[in-house]
Amino acid sequence: MKIFALSQNVVGRMGKDLPDIAFLSVIHDLDLEGDIRPSCRQFGTPEVYDLIRGQVKSLKKTMKNTLSIASMLPPRLSMDEYADFVEASLKDCNRIHAARQKEIEKRIKLPFSIPEDKKKST
User: Fold this and answer.
1) Using an 8 Å Cβ cutoff, are 3 and 24 in contact?
2) In whole angstroms, what separates CA 54 from the centre of its chain?
3) Which residues are within 8 A (CB) of 101 and not within 5 positions of it... i.e. 6 or more apart?
4) Which end of the chain has the least Cβ crowding within 10 Å, N or C?
5) Alpha helices (runs of H) in 14-115, residue ranges in sequence order
């Protein structure tokens, strides 16, 4: 589902779905050619596959010699480790897509928030 969602709206879904797909691919040791490419052929696009491949490469590079895959499972991911992942991802991101996403975010007039009455019930 995430590959399909990403392929339908790359700019709007890149910040959420792309890191999720990459992280899940790495922690479950998925084979990009055998597992991800077929899903991209069926539900996505070649461009989405390229984005995922780049993100996985970036994540593996960030994780190399720092932590084992098992220790990366939430909630064991520290803020510093997550920040390192985001920083590495931004270095390898498509600058055009990132600029478009930033423009969309600037147009948001009402940021998301949880109403006070809902906060108390959770």
Assistant:
1) no
2) 11
3) 11, 12, 14, 15
4) C
5) 17-27, 37-43, 46-63, 79-91, 95-106
Q: Which residue has the tokens 């593996």?
A: 60
Contacts of 100 (CB under 8 A, 6+ apart): 11
- List pLDDT tens digits, range 2-61: 888 888 878 877 788 888 898 888 888 888 999 999 999 999 989 999 999 998 988 888
**Pair of tokens at residue 78:** 């520290």
| Structure token pair of residue 85 | 């992942």
C-alpha triplet 86, 91, 92: angle, nearest 5°:
100
What is this structure's pTM? 0.52
